[in-house]
Amino acid sequence: MMSSLVHVAPAPLARPGRTLGELVPGFLQWFAFVRRRSPHTVYNYGKDLQSFLRFCEQAELVMPAAVTFRHVEFYLGWLQTARGLKPRSANRHLHALRTFWTYLIREGLATGNPAAECFMLPERKVLPGYLSVPEQERVLAALAADLSLLGRRDYALVATALLTGLRCSELAVLQVAHVDLEAGRLRVVNGKGGKDRELPLIPRLVAILRGYLDDVRPALINRPVGQLVRETPHGPWALVQAVKGRSVYRGLHTRDRAEAERLRAELIPLPAPPPFVFVNACATNGYRARRAGLALSPKTIFALVRRAVAPIIGRPVHPHMLRHSFASRLRENGADLQLIQEALGHANINTTTMYAHLTTNRRRQELARLLD
Q: In this structure, is residue 357 part of a structural domain?
């Protein structure tokens, strides 16, 4: 019979649903390559989702369909009570969950977004911490007094932060090619959100950066990395390399130091100069030797600002406070919020409205007159 000759393919086995833990890596890849988010943003989303996965493990929630908005609301409460997070940080976790479930819905892995049904937690509106104009001037005057290489580098970095409002990450990757001292402008390339912007350089900052770029930076990037000449206990100069904290003599013995330096330069040519404005100055052993002449990391800039600025004004300071100080200085001199938004590179003017509540000197005088 003809019917007996017809081959009927067996129905494909249904693929079992993937767990939340299995879906997170795919989401992070999509977030990085499709949504084009920065590595820093992807890393933070990954951390927040790992925290949620630990919560789900305790609650025995394995599949996306098992999570309801009540679970998410309980999670937000758990973040505040058990982990001590502030509402702003808890809202960041909620935003990560909303984006994660949006991805699941787009991929056909979920039918609803439980995080979208949760309300954002009310956040307390606080004024940004900043340095007053007299404090800024005191900091710049104190840092200008240090004439060492590192002191002049730190002075140029802090002055750039105070007088341009660059983010810590933008300071770290600022390149010499993006600083035009003749035209008096600075270009931020691929800033937060992938946006570029230009900022004016006032003559005061131009003078500071010119002295740093002409005299200090060349001395920092041309320092020998890891290997240098040193006088041996027996007299001759020799090539020395730092190995695990110990000085190891590598030969090249000569009685004349100039000759030793010339031979070292021939044996160990200096690397190509880095493109970055603010560079690491360490030229000794271990990790610091590998970082010599390279860009300062945001973590290093954070520690640098805390170490250099905090003792001068007597309270803790971090790089973003210098950015707030730049905005407050503009506001003090009568700048409107749109101008401040453009200078800071804010995507949304709602972010800039935090500076609307700062009382300028002119407003303080007017209030004092009305209250007199």
A: yes
